[in-house]
Amino acid sequence: MMFVHTDTKSPTSPLRALSVLVFLLLLIHLCTGQSLIGSSQPIVATHGDNVTLPCRLDPAEDVTDLTVEWTRPDLDPRFVHVRRSGQELVSKKHPWFRERTSLFINELKHGNISLKLSRVKLSDQGTYRCFIPGKEKLSSVQLFVASDAVSSPVITLAGVDKTTGGVVLHCSSSRWHPEPEVLWLDGEGNLLSAGPTETVRGPDDLYTVSSRVTVEKRHSNSFTCRVQQNNINQTTEAEIHIQDDFFIFLSSSNVPIIIGWAVSLAVCIIVILSLVFLFLKRRQNKTITKRSRSEETEEGEKKKSSKRNKNKGPVVDDLETKRTTSQQNPLLSLDGVQRKEEPEEEVERLRKQLENKETEFKEKQTELHKLRTENQRLKTDLQNLENKLQRKQTDAEREEKRLKDQLESKTKKVKDRGAEIQQLQDQNRDLQRLNQDLENKNKQLERNQTAAEREEERLKSQTKQLESQLSEEKKNRMEAERKMKEELQKTKTEVHLLPKPVSCFYLTDLWMRLRQLKLSMTTNQSQ
Ligand SMILES: *[C@@H]1O[C@H](CO)[C@@H](O)[C@H](O)[C@H]1NC(C)=O
Ligand SMILES: *[C@@H]1O[C@H](CO)[C@@H](O)[C@H](O)[C@H]1NC(C)=O
Ligand SMILES: *[C@@H]1O[C@H](CO)[C@@H](O)[C@H](O)[C@H]1NC(C)=O
């Protein structure tokens, strides 16, 4: 704006006005904000395909005669494609890109300097820069190269977690590029927490990933292993269904513990019962011996009292009789009743106790029996489950065998195909050799032809030379003839002019000369 002011203030000098105009144009040019536009989105290419990396000058301008550079800053040399003075500078570019890059020549006049990259390799992945040095403009494009041979994930049962009773699943997927991530989902699509993903990078730059997860019995028993690469928007997944009874089988791996408990309980009960039984029996024995001993002492007393009876008076006797009567009829004697009732009660009580213990014992026995049957049942269940597992294993084995056979046949096919390819290659080589021979022969032929042509040329020139010689000779001969004729004429006239007598001699002389001339002519002709 300041310059515009100065311009209006001093319009007197046209030169100055022009310079200001030029400056203004330059300013406008700079302010228009011409820029190079690449791609904000990464470009994704599949291994082996062709890809176009976009870049254009905006606003558009013809860049046909400008220098255009495509580079990969991480490489050395960094040049991918350089165009200068209307030609590609092949010597500057990185050998990786030899004969694989091109610009769209017809698009250059529209400011479009997009780069075509053919037969994309995995190593082509990276950030590319387009650059017009004349304009100091620069933009970048990110390229991802996806593998074209990703294998679907494969889920396998990797084992059993003894502490939780869970199943360990293993998932693996190979031939990935770029490196993917592995996710585990349950039947409802919830993310499961898994162990770390193991990644192995092969010599072909392709990645193999694998992951393990421990799953427990869930609502659906279905689990998904998902392998994904977000940069290239690629996802593959596999699902596995685990049947309920598999988990039941796993949890019934606790069965032996239950059985062990039951058995030890039963043993304890038996031991307790036998102890109780022994104790009761001993007590019974004791009471019996006590009773027989008390009877003995009673008899001894009776004998003593009868002796005393003989020595003492009637009062004593009365008393004694009372005693004896009481002895004779135990029911009537209070002392005797008391003494007899005590052990009987004891016996009754013990009997009852014994009965109780017996019923208890019976109960325990039935319980034991029940536990035994339960044990038996669990055993049969276990057996069944084992059988099932066996069956499943054999099924799995059969399946594995089938897959192996398939794989074998496929590998065989591939081998056959390889042999075919080899054969074709051999044929191709033969063909090439034949082609080479043909070319050699062709070259020989050409050489022969040129030799023949040269020979012809030579012959022609010889002929020409001969012809010219001949014509020269002809001319000479004609000249000679003409001379001769003249001479003849002359002589003739001389003859005419000569007097008759002289003529005879002169004629002979003339004859001789003529003959000589003729001879020389014939020799000339033969030559
Ligand atoms: C890729 O480009 C090359 C030439 O650069 C061409 O020969 C080839 O057919 C193209 N391939 C595909 C898949 O377009
Ligand atoms: C630039 O040229 C390429 C090749 O013809 C084309 O695919 C692309 O769309 C062009 N870009 C623009 C912005 O016109
Ligand atoms: C990824 O691919 C899916 C289909 O394969 C498509 O619906 C989705 O739009 C793609 N996303 C991107 C970011 O390209």
From TrEMBL:
Transmembrane annotation, as ranges: 258-280
UniProt key word Nucleotide-binding: no
Domain Ig-like, chain residue ranges per copy: 14-142, 153-241
GO terms under cellular component: external side of plasma membrane
Signal as UniProt keyword: yes
Entry-linked InterPro entries: BTN3A2-like_Ig-C (IPR053896), Ig-like_dom (IPR007110), Ig-like_dom_sf (IPR036179), Ig-like_fold (IPR013783), Ig_sub (IPR003599), Ig_V-set (IPR013106), IgSF_BTN/MOG (IPR050504)
Signal sequence bounds: 1-33
One of the GO BP terms on file: regulation of T cell activation
Cellular localization per UniProt: Membrane
Keywords: Disulfide bond, Glycoprotein, Immunoglobulin domain, Membrane, Signal, Transmembrane, Transmembrane helix
Major site of localization recorded for this protein: membrane
Ranges in coiled-coil conformation: none
GO MF, one annotated term: signaling receptor binding
Biased composition (Basic and acidic residues): 292-303, 337-353, 388-419, 427-460
Region (Disordered), start-end ranges: 288-353, 386-477
Source superkingdom: Eukaryota
The family this protein is said to belong to: Belongs to the SKINT family.
Protein name: Ig-like domain-containing protein
Species name: Lates calcarifer (Barramundi)
